[in-house]
From TrEMBL:
Domain Tyrosine-protein phosphatase: 38-252
Cited SUPFAM superfamilies: (Phosphotyrosine protein) phosphatases II
TM helices/strands, residue ranges: none
Pfam families: Y_phosphatase (PF00102)
Protein name as annotated: Protein-tyrosine phosphatase
InterPro entries assigned to the protein according to its UniProt record, in alphabetical order: Oocyte-zygote_transition_reg, Prot-tyrosine_phosphatase-like, PTP_cat, Tyr_Pase_cat, Tyr_Pase_dom
Origin species: Mesorhabditis spiculigera
Boundaries of every Tyrosine specific protein phosphatases domain copy: 170-243
Length: 303
């Protein structure tokens, strides 16, 4: 019997091809919008805080780092034994693969540090991301042993140190490679910066986009962000962070395996987008309208 010249493709290969096609759709839509289109898109989805949905947060102002960053009641993380409300400024944020993929939280304060580590232990956290500003463009990776009263857990800590105080960093694909290693994790991943909505916002949004593309779902990024903000109020703080999400994914989908989407006649558009991104981010330090936070200590004077 003659051998068939048709080779069966593995399901993995088929899914990779589908993902590549969906990544190509993301590239096309992003390049069609450009930086100016993304600005308009972001501004259509303002950060809105509804204090009626944040009653426990409002009841515990001393446990909040910032006055104007509230914590939703419906999906807040409970820390047993922390205080009468079991309150910590932290929310679950789900993705396509996991309804509790992330715990987005503010950076620990002196009054909440013990509660933070209680949360890590009670949620059996395996991965923790921290985003801060540093002159060194690196990611520190450490393994931490966290001891509780009756248990010990091991946490892999990724300290993302190359995010400037304002604006956004260069679109290194490194962050995507970090995220893609976490698909199989079932326990929540803790992510925090200072307020837990700004620098970590792009990381959470990128993970959501990647999972939707892997599942072959048609979606709009602005709708995904709106949905995620129902879980963590104010997620993705500035338009420059929104630019960053798209710039990193463009770079990744165009050049990294398994995608490596050919740009063809869109190469010039790709180059222009990256140049416009670099220019927009470079101008941030002179932009006096950049969003700022109101520390809780300013409660009496803030209006």
């Amino acid at each position: 019997m003659p051998r068939s010249i048709c080779k069966k493709r593995s399901w993995k290969r088929v899914r990779e091809e589908w993902s590549r096609q969906d990544a190509g759709v993301f590239i096309r839509r992003t390049l069609d919008k450009g930086i100016e289109g993304l600005r308009e898109e972001f501004n259509r989805n303002p950060r809105i805080y509804d204090t009626a949905k944040c009653t426990v947060s409002c009841r515990n102002p001393e446990l909040n780092r910032y006055k104007d960053i509230c914590c939703h009641d419906h999906n807040r993380v409970h820390v047993v034994g922390a205080n009468p409300d079991e309150y910590i400024h932290a929310n679950y944020v789900g993705t396509e693969y996991n309804p509790k993929r992330f715990i987005c939280t503010q950076g620990p304060m002196e009054t909440t540090c013990a509660d933070f580590w209680m949360m890590v232990i009670q949620q059996n956290v395996e991965i923790k991301y921290t985003s801060t500003s540093s002159p060194d463009a690196v990611v520190d990776i450490r393994t931490l042993k966290v001891n509780g009263l009756n248990s010990e857990i091991v946490v892999k800590h990724y300290h993302w140190r190359f995010w400037p105080d304002r604006g956004a960093p260069p679109p290194f694909p490194l962050v995507i490679r970090m995220l893609e290693k976490q698909y199989s994790k079932q326990n929540p991943i803790v992510v925090h910066c200072s307020a837990g909505v700004g620098r970590i916002g792009p990381l959470v949004l990128m993970q959501g986009i990647l999972e939707l593309i892997k599942r072959g779902k048609d979606f709009k990024v602005e709708d995904l962000l709106k949905e995620m903000r129902q879980s963590r109020a104010g997620l993705v703080q500035t338009v420059h962070q929104y630019y960053y999400v798209h710039a990193v994914l463009l770079e990744y989908f165009a050049k990294q395996k398994p995608y490596q989407c050919p740009l063809g006649n869109r190469q010039a558009d790709f180059d222009k987008f990256m140049a416009d991104y670099t220019k927009a981010v470079a101008q941030v330090d002179n932009n006096k309208s950049t969003m700022s936070y109101l520390p809780s200590s300013d409660l009496k004077t803030a209006t």
